[in-house]
Design a protein that fits this description.
binds coproporphyrinogen III; alpha/beta; 11% strand; 15 helices; 7-stranded parallel beta sheet; 46% helix
Length: 361
């Protein structure tokens, strides 16, 4: 880290996580052990998760600091992964800003209404996120970091486009048509919407970093539905704005989306424009890492085990994991992860075995 505004007692500043394999790889170094963690490692694939979550709604669980902290720690204890990812959700800051949102099991985020017209958006953006509302987040992060020792915590937030895709549609959608219509039909309303979601995510990221997260990941899960022209002209500036909220802290950042083979250099530019000095681009399972390394010369990469192969026979999965690690050697730093989240039906013992394999290579 070149310069930082984080507190002296932060795990990156006091030395607890500054030499962790994850942090080294995000700096473009090759640590003695290749780091690995899994998107959606804290969740339904774990019986201990289903047990502690029983009877408590998803968003309510995110806002109970002891519970959120326990769920964050579960996969670290079980799998020996090189990072924890904070148990929360990309829509939590919307909830904290007073937006009517719920997460329906098996469906995803559902809004009280679609926010599509200039009036809808004007009402929405008049809501602020009170800093005090972020207290349960800071508390959960602080509890978690106190237990993690030298294992870094990855904080995260949803990118403005992905959040707007849920807000405009009102619920999960396949092609995000309504959001893509709005950005062209009423660009001023669109720009106001994504500037507002950028600042919510920015405040959410900052709360996690200040409370002890050693890296952050911006999830633009649905950016792959955009053309490069729409991404650069209507979306990239808001993602830059979200990440700029934490640039002064010097904490490393990861930028991830799915179906983004055509957007990778533009997504990398967002990290640079935001001033995130140490960074990696997350690669989904569709783009082999050596091809991604050609598109992003000199840039650390994260990815990209195909989640579908977690359910394949071990010899098939093992060959795939070895291939991912060997293609990843083309990048200056490599954080092994999945090409998207852990499917809920995954056998957790397979995840532990993948961690052991990667650590043995
Ligand atoms: O382990 C982790 O990765 C940390 C926690 C985490 C969750 N959501 C918990 C969660 C993270 C990083 C997210 C991010 C998130 N949330 C994204 C970006 C990542 C991605 O998958 O693309 C998105 C698009 C969301 C929105 C969302 N929340 C969806 C699509 C769903 C799944 C709905 C379903 O039931 O299929 C959720 C719910 C959710 N978020 C769960 C978890 C553990 C499942 C809740 C449950 O147990 O029912």
């Amino acid at each position: 880290m070149k310069s930082t505004t984080i507190a002296p007692a932060h795990p990156l500043a006091d030395g607890r996580t500054s030499a962790a394999p994850l942090v080294q790889a995000l700096r473009g170094e090759r640590p003695s052990r290749t780091p690995i963690w899994f998107m959606r490692q804290a969740g339904r694939s774990l019986p201990e998760y289903r047990k502690v979550r029983a009877g408590t709604g998803m968003l309510e669980s995110c806002l109970r600091p002891e519970l959120a902290s326990e769920i964050t720690l579960q996969p670290v204890r079980r799998h020996g992964v090189d990072a924890a990812v904070f148990f929360s959700d990309i829509v939590v800051p919307l909830k904290l800003a007073g937006v009517g949102v719920d997460i329906k099991s098996g469906v995803g985020p559902v809004m009280d209404q679609p926010y599509r017209t200039a009036d809808d958006v004007a009402r929405l953006v008049s809501r602020g996120l009170d800093d005090a509302a972020l207290e349960p987040i800071r508390e959960a992060v602080a509890l978690t970091v106190a237990e993690l020792g030298s294992t870094p915590l990855v904080g995260f937030g949803g990118a403005p486009f992905t959040l707007a895709a849920y807000l405009v549609e009102g619920r999960p959608s396949r092609d995000h048509l309504a959001a893509r219509t709005l950005m062209h039909a009423d660009p001023a309303t669109w720009d106001a919407l994504v500037a507002w979601t950028a600042d919510l995510t920015g405040a959410f990221l900052r709360a996690q970093v200040e409370a002890g997260a050693s890296a952050v990941q911006l999830f633009d899960s649905w950016a792959g539905s955009l053309s490069l022209a729409d991404y650069t002209s209507r979306v990239a500036a808001s993602s830059t704005r979200a990440l700029a909220h934490i640039a002064d802290t010097g904490v490393p950042g990861i930028h991830f989306g799915t179906g983004t083979g055509h957007l990778l250099p533009a997504m990398r530019s967002v990290l640079v424009s935001a001033g995130i000095a140490d960074h990696a681009v997350g690669i989904d399972y569709r783009t082999p890492l050596d091809e991604a390394a050609d598109l992003l010369p000199g840039v650390p990469l994260q990815g990209n085990i195909d989640p579908a192969l977690l359910a394949a026979p071990w010899d098939v999965l093992e060959a795939h994991v070895r291939d991912v690690v060997s293609r990843g050697l083309k990048a200056p730093g490599h954080v092994v992860n999945l090409g998207h989240g852990v499917p809920p039906e995954t056998d957790p013992t397979v995840l532990t075995r993948v961690v052991e394999l990667v650590h043995s290579l």
